[in-house]
Structures are given as structure tokens and as C-alpha cells.
Specification:
The complex is a heterodimer.
Chain A: E1 4-6, E2 11-14, E3 19-25, E4 30-38, E5 44-50, E6 55-57, E7 60-65, E8 70-75, E9 84-92, E10 98-100, E11 104-109
Parallel strand pairs in A: 2-11
Antiparallel strand pairs in A: 1-3, 3-8, 4-5, 4-9, 6-7, 7-8, 9-10, 9-11
Chain B: E1 4-7, E2 10-13, E3 19-25, E4 31-37, E5 43-50, E6 53-57, E7 64-70, E8 73-78, E9 87-94, E10 104-105, E11 109-113
Parallel strand pairs in B: 2-11
Antiparallel strand pairs in B: 1-3, 3-8, 4-5, 4-9, 5-6, 7-8, 9-10, 9-11
Classes of the chains: A mainly beta, B mainly beta.
Chain lengths: ~110, ~110
């Protein structure tokens, strides 16, 4: 089983739709969690950290479920500019590295 | 001002050649990384340096040799290039060791081995 797993997609959604991605992680010692965004032919950039209590940033909501070992990202009112690959990132306690998921591709259609 | 920069952005070379990729960060970060992103877009860590000291070396062939002359620079030298080395190589930095810290990525170096 991969350390961090994501549905690769693509998710094709119309503008204005709400879309949700999940990411599962295998190591229960995982300590911190992030969502990064990677545009086509660009570098990954931090979208948001994921806190135990869940957190929201505008149209984006991230949640963590430690019992089931998954994190989620919800995007409301999708914009064309949201089209990108969304990478789930997990840091494992005791390891000095973060592990990236393979990413979920989102395409928002006019 | 570019925070994390890499040179070159594109590198096309023949199998068997030796090449280097340079990375510099002006963020004052202590930790720098090299990642490889293959054709399936999987981003995998290769090396991590903290204050010029190697702290992570992920089962990378010894044809790949990182060098950190100071904490603002982490270069990657690749000997005897193979077709499978074709990928995008990203340099990144973070204030500490990546533990609960944001990673800042460079624009990537697209390597094509012919």
C-alpha cells in the first residue's frame, strides 16, 4: 500500500460546482498534513495546511479524519482558475521528510 | 526577487553524459531538498540537506551526487545519464526540516536524456 494515496482523476466539473477530493495515508504516526496545488508545467505551491479541527480559507475547506486516516479538500463555487493538480502531503513523525501523494487533477469547465 | 531558483530550466543531453543542476534560495532557510517528478507526475524526494549536512538520501543511485557549498545552495550532479533519468527535477527549501513547515519549490529543471 502506498504511504499516501489519491484518486488521480481527472475530475471534470462545471464552473460553480462543488468538488471534493480525499487522500488516505497509511502511517498512523503521521503528524501534519497539507494540500499543495500544482499548475501544469509549474512547481507545487502550498494551498493550505490541514488542522485537526478542520479549517477553511475562502472557498476551500480542509478536514482531517485521524480515525480513518484520510484528509479531504472541498472546493466550493469552482472557478476556471481552480483547474490544477491537487497534491496531498503528509509528514510522518520521526521522519525528516514529507511524502507527496500522486495528485488529483481537477478540470473546471466553462 | 525569485525565492528558489534553478538553472538550467531545460536540459537536453545524450545518454552517458554528466550534467549538473544548480539551486539557490534567498529565503534564509536551513533546509533544502531535491525532488524528482516523473512522467506520471509522482513527486518523490531524493535528498535533503540541513545546514549543508545531508539528512535524507532516498535510495537514489550513486550516479546522483548532491553538493551543498553553503546553506543557500544545493546542486545536483548526475553522472552517466540514463534514459530513465528523464524527468522534472525540483529543488525546494523550508525554514526547518520540513516538519510542519511549508516547502518552497523552485520552477523545476526539465531533463530529457536521448
Amino acid at each position: 500500500r502506498k504511504e499516501v494515496e489519491q484518486d488521480p482523476g481527472p475530475f471534470n466539473v462545471p464552473e460553480g460546482a462543488t468538488v471534493a477530493f480525499n487522500c488516505t495515508y497509511s502511517n498512523s504516526a503521521s503528524q501534519s498534513f497539507f494540500w499543495y496545488r500544482q499548475d501544469c508545467r509549474k512547481e507545487p505551491k502550498l494551498l493550505m495546511s490541514v488542522y485537526s479541527s478542520g479549517n477553511e480559507d475562502g472557498r476551500f475547506t480542509a478536514q482531517l479524519n485521524r480515525a480513518s486516516q484520510y484528509i479531504s479538500l472541498l472546493i466550493r463555487d469552482s472557478k476556471l482558475s481552480d483547474s490544477a493538480t491537487y497534491l496531498c502531503v503528509v509528514n510522518i513523525r520521526g521522519y525528516q521528510k514529507v511524502t507527496f501523494g500522486t495528485g488529483t487533477k481537477l478540470q473546471v469547465i466553462p | 526577487d525569485t525565492a528558489v531558483s534553478q538553472t538550467p530550466k531545460y536540459l537536453v543531453t545524450q545518454m552517458g553524459n554528466d550534467k549538473s543542476i544548480k539551486c539557490e534560495q534567498n529565503l534564509g532557510h536551513d533546509t533544502m531538498y531535491w525532488y524528482k517528478q516523473d512522467s506520471k507526475k509522482f513527486l518523490k524526494i531524493m535528498f535533503s540537506y540541513n545546514n549543508k549536512e545531508l539528512i535524507i538520501n532516498e535510495t537514489v543511485p550513486n550516479r546522483f551526487s548532491p553538493k551543498s557549498p553553503d546553506k543557500a545552495h544545493l546542486n545536483l550532479h548526475i553522472n552517466s545519464l540514463e534514459l530513465g533519468d528523464s524527468a522534472v527535477y525540483f529543488c525546494a527549501s523550508s525554514p526547518q526540516d520540513g516538519n510542519q513547515e511549508t516547502q518552497y519549490f523552485g520552477p523545476g529543471t526539465r531533463l530529457l536524456v536521448l
